[in-house]
Design brief:
This protein has 15 helices and 15 strands. The protein is about 50% helix and about 20% strand. It is of the alpha/beta class. The protein is globular and about 80 Å long. The structure holds ligand C2E and calcium ion (CA) (2 copies). One calcium ion binds next to loops.
């Protein structure tokens, strides 16, 4: 509420007294100005962005925020709703450019919006048709190089376009709300495979890590679905980690706490993804059932090149030891990074050095069959 009040004050302050400021819905505002120069609008947008970016003190802590702004100019004959729709499309574009940006409507945006809708439709059908599947990337212990488990990463096997990576469709999945379907679909298929492999002698503790988006976590129905998947596959919940980014945990603590507690009651634990890139509040590490920190690839890739990355990796490892958390180094691409992470005391590694994400069938051939032939001692 305080942020909304702050934003409305900023908006009223930057416009002229005969301009119009309103709140459209939740966190959406609108400013209508009369102007004879197109540049006026983008200058105003820059000013609004700069003012809102200033840190805001709420309950003793400082927060900073960004806005995304879409600009549209009324053409003769435009209805108010067309003007709003156009501004909305421009805002979408601004969001796509990153945080705190503004963008001006252009007629090609209508076409792009239509294409987006067709991607969303196709994605909905893909979920139904089983075109969404997990690829698995192995995670190894660094000291004795034994396989400990896999991270499930979504792929879309598109009938015409071939194999699509998450970057090609996850944003649309988030925006359209299909992300929960996708997360659950990936989790269910991966659980089924891991459960099957856990029956093999020596692989009883094989772990599964599956990604959960902020949007999935914020939906109270997700815990019911996860419970159903655990029950129907019979996987041991203690071998399952749900990967969540720091931002997800900290941004919306109110709506996610109940869900996370319910997940803990199911026996699941969290892994903090991309650790070190998000918030610096570490309170959640104690408050939530976190078992693993995943050191972001950006720090691992800097090992031996960038002293700061080494400091950050060391600090994360010290923190993890103190809190009795396990650490996975992400994006290990060469032997040097592997050795360095092991020297620093990191427990686990994941990355192209150990293996790329591959299909369940290929994983079976590449990683599981060899262990079946030469079983590990448990
Ligand atoms: P992430 O969870 O941080 O996953 C690691 C990403 O790094 C994966 O990209 C993986 O293929 C890539 N990677 C692994 N090892 C290396 C390496 O040695 N070098 C380099 N350069 N890259 C490496 P991918 O599969 O494209 O996934 C991208 C992101 O999409 C994931 O990042 C995750 O945030 C998201 N994602 C993937 N699957 C799911 C899912 O089922 N649900 C949700 N909500 N998000 C997912
Ligand atoms: Ca992940
Ligand atoms: Ca990651």
């Amino acid at each position: 509420d305080q942020l909304l009040i702050h934003v409305s004050r900023v908006l009223k302050h930057v416009v002229r007294h005969d301009d119009l400021v309103g709140r459209l819905s939740g966190d959406e505002f609108i400013v209508i100005i009369r102007t004879s120069h197109r540049d006026d609008a983008s200058q105003l947008a820059s000013r609004i962005s700069a003012e809102i970016r200033q840190p805001l003190k709420v309950a003793g802590s400082e927060f900073s925020h960004t806005v995304s702004i879409g600009i549209s100019f009324a053409q003769l004959g435009d209805s108010p709703s067309t003007l709003l729709e156009n501004a909305d499309m421009a805002m979408y574009q601004a969001k796509a450019l990153g945080r705190g940006r503004h963008s001006t409507f252009h007629s090609t945006m209508r076409l792009q919006a239509q294409q987006r809708i067709s991607l969303e439709e196709a994605l909905g059908i893909a979920v139904q048709n089983g075109e969404i599947k997990p690829y698995l990337q192995p995670i190894f212990r660094l000291d004795d190089k034994t396989l400990t488990g896999f991270e499930a990463l979504v792929r879309w096997q598109h009938p015409q376009l071939g194999l699509l990576m998450p970057a090609a469709f996850l944003k649309q999945a988030e925006d359209s709300g299909l992300i929960q379907e996708i997360d659950m679909c990936v989790f269910a298929s991966a659980c089924a495979a891991i459960t099957m492999w856990q029956q093999i002698h020596g692989l009883g503790n094989l772990r599964l890590s599956s990604n959960l988006s902020a949007r999935s976590l914020a939906d109270p129905r997700v815990k019911v679905r996860i419970k159903e998947i655990l029950e129907s596959t019979g996987i041991n919940p203690a071998s399952v980690y749900l990967e969540i980014t720091e931002t997800t945990l900290v941004d919306d603590i109110k709506s996610t706490t109940a869900t996370i507690n319910a997940l803990r009651d199911l026996g699941l634990r969290l892994a903090i993804d991309d650790f070190g890139t998000g918030y610096s509040s570490l309170l959640y590490l104690k408050r939530f059932p976190v078992g693993v920190l995943k050191i972001d690839r950006s720090f691992v890739s800097g090992l031996g090149k960038n002293p700061e990355d080494e400091v950050i990796a060391t600090t994360i490892l010290t923190l993890a030891k103190a809190l009795e958390l396990e650490v996975v180094a992400e994006g290990v691409e060469n032997e040097h990074q592997l050795d360095r992470m092991r020297e620093l005391g990191c427990d686990y590694g994941q990355g192209y050095w150990f293996g790329h994400p591959i299909s369940i069938e290929s994983t079976e051939v590449a990683f599981i069959e060899p262990l079946r032939l030469a079983p590990l001692t448990p």
